[in-house]
Request: fold
Amino acid sequence: MDLDLTGKRALVTGGSRGIGRAVARQLALEGCDVVVVARGEIELKTAAADLAHESGRRVVAIPADTADDASVADMAARANAELGGVDILINAAARSAGGGGPAMLMDVATIRQEFDIKALGYLRCVQRLAPQMVDRGWGRIINVGGLAARQSGAVSAAIRNVAVAALTKNLADELGPSGVTVTAVHPGVSKTERIAMRIEQRATERGLSTAEVAADMGAAYAIGRIVEPAEIGYVVAFLASPRSVAINGDAIACGGGKVGAIYY
Reply:
């Protein structure tokens, strides 16, 4: 299927690594010019150069902190100047969750910071970039949440990802009549750089191979393995395309099928 993305202009926060980078890569391969955004400038510039070389598209690195209003405003202005506008916004910037444990013992300051970077950071980016989409009568916004929204235990991750789903639906209702759709994706465990390091650490601690640890983690999903970031990129690329207009306001699980759970 031709996703009709050639010539579209995309901006991906959290684009220097992990799921964000995989999404930026797929959009570039589908023909988009892309702005990648993250806090770490050196890693970001390396990612942009690599993606541009692989895809042959224009990929621009703009460092920004999504928890800072002024930083987001400057980022949006620079992105518009570089690409002449943004048609597609992928919100994927987030800190690793501060862990699980009892809610009664959680550090409120940690939860507040993670919420500010992710859920409120997503809103900051939308407020800066969606108005131009509305003016043009077309746009796509995809918010990366997480399957922690659908289970207890990881308190901070659950709170911020539920907030992402609620934000997505509210924005979809507001922006849909103007031709701008807003969806969320909920990845489960995926084989990002951080998860690869966790697998190696567990393997060392337990005296197992990394393949055995990865298989154990993958057993929680119906496909029997951990999803690759690129496979999440395929889903997001479709949602970012004109072909996805029938999907708006909903959260799409991208975890390979959580065993035993039914969502309807």
About this structure: The chain has a mean pLDDT of 94. The domain at 9-190+228-254 is CATH 3.40.50.720 (Rossmann fold). Helices lie at 18-29, 41-55, 69-83, 108-136, 155-175, 193-206, 210-218, 229-239.
